[in-house]
Amino acid sequence: MSLASGALAGFVSLAAANKARGAIRKLLVKTPAPKGYDPTKHKWLMAIDIEQCIGCGMCVQACELENKVPHGPTYFRTWVERYIIKRRKPGSTTARGETFVDSPNGGINGFPHTTVPREEILKSFYVPKLCNLCEDSPCVQACPVGATFDAPDGVVLVDPNYCIGCGFCIQACPYGCRFMHPETGTAEKCTLCYHRITRGLLPACVEICPTEARIFGDLKNPGENDPIGRFIEKNKVQTLKPHLGTSPRVLYAGMDKEVR
To answer: Among 8, 22, 204, 224, which lies 20 to 30 A Cα-Cα from 83?
Structure first.
């Protein structure tokens, strides 16, 4: 379905759209959660420790395999970016030099050596990215048929049975976390591996991370030693683009001001 025809279909009947939105939010239609799962009794949260990420790309590969993400340079539910901050040039009045950001193939195979000379590098680090699980989600607001919705457990989901492929949610996401599936023609994004977490398992990216740079937990049901609680208590946590007012639920520790 083309963008124009999809948009037209989305606005044909506002009543139908509202009905669809209400049905999805109330019943979590067609989610991969088991029948006995109660989303009102959970509040999932992801945290990223930037200082622990080594840019191995194993999280991206695990996500691709677990969620059958299509191959291609723009199809990622999660990816890793490399930030390289150069030293300031002699005579410059700035505290730092230029910032270079790259993510070859989403970081799935790690990162090649940078072309920036070592002596010019002030600092370099890796930043995993994924859906920010916004509390005030622009994508939810932009969807004309309610296919994108906030589940009570804090996960933003997409029902492919309602999605008309208009792409409005993709355009609305300020974090670049969505893509149009080339085969289904519907919007897709990270769901925190909803089919796993609703069954007591960790998201694939969290389980595979060799340095435990990704921390995951349930705020309503803290586990033994409560990894999320301990992480928030011990670190100064921030969110991406807080000035946008989206209230992201993905937290970062060790985030440099150049991260965007």
So the answer is: 204
| Cα distances (Å, whole numbers) of residue 143 to 17, 25, 52, 53 | 9, 13, 36, 34
Which ranges of the chain does DSSP label H, i.e. alpha helix? 3-11, 14-27, 58-67, 138-142, 168-172, 194-197, 204-208, 227-234
Count CB neighbours of 112 within 10 A.
Answer: 9
pTM: 0.85
Per-residue pLDDT of the chain (260 residues; tens, 9 = 90+): 444 444 444 444 445 445 444 444 444 445 788 888 999 999 999 999 999 999 999 999 999 999 999 998 899 999 999 999 999 888 888 888 999 999 999 999 999 999 999 999 999 999 999 999 999 999 999 999 999 999 999 999 999 999 999 999 999 999 999 999 999 999 999 999 999 999 999 999 999 999 999 999 999 988 777 889 999 999 999 999 999 999 999 999 999 988 97
